[in-house]
Amino acid sequence: MQTDGCELYDALRREQPRKLRRIGCVAHSRRRFYKALLESCSESLWFIGQMCQLYQLERELKDCAPQERHRGRLAKAPAIWLAMKKRAQTLRADPRVLPQSSLGKAVNYFLNEYTALVG
């Protein structure tokens, strides 16, 4: 099931672990970076750009057979995800990025949801 980071969904998944697997929603994460951008945090623009690359990859693969789509994702998406994770970890460790700032919240949400997002 595709969800946001609400803990309610994890409780549901734990009730039926063999039947349900939670995947994250990139749009929910992107929205947080967009909010930071509106608050003049230019660092968030890089994350939005990376997510746009993921969306572009999906557009390029939309007419492909499922196995070909899977191969296409495996060829390009992991590098994008890893770059975002590394940059988010760097920002979270940066004392200038306050956890309660819009960028801090976006970074924390992204890192907390990372496994579900790449799933």
Fold blueprint:
Elements (H helix, E strand, L loop, with lengths): L6 H9 L10 H13 L4 H19 L4 H28 L8 H17 L1
Helix pairs in contact: 2-3, 2-5, 3-4, 4-5
Describe this structure in words.
With 119 residues, the protein is mostly helical. It has one domain. The protein contains 5 helices and no strands. Helix 2 (26-38) runs antiparallel to helix 3, helix 2 (26-38) runs antiparallel to helix 5 (102-118) and helix 3 (43-61) packs antiparallel against helix 4 (66-93).
Key traits:
mainly alpha
Count the strands? Answer: 0
Number of helices: 5
Q: Into which percent range does the helicity of residues fall?
A: over 70%
Briefly note the structural class of the backbone: mainly alpha
**H-E order:** HHHHH
Distance between the termini: 11 Å
Count of the separate structural domains = 1
> If you average the pLDDT, what whole number results?
89
Estimated radius of gyration:
15 Å
Report the portion of residues in β strands: under 5%
Spatial shape = globular
Spans of at least 5 consecutive residues whose pLDDT stays below 50 are: none
Describe the biggest sheet?
none
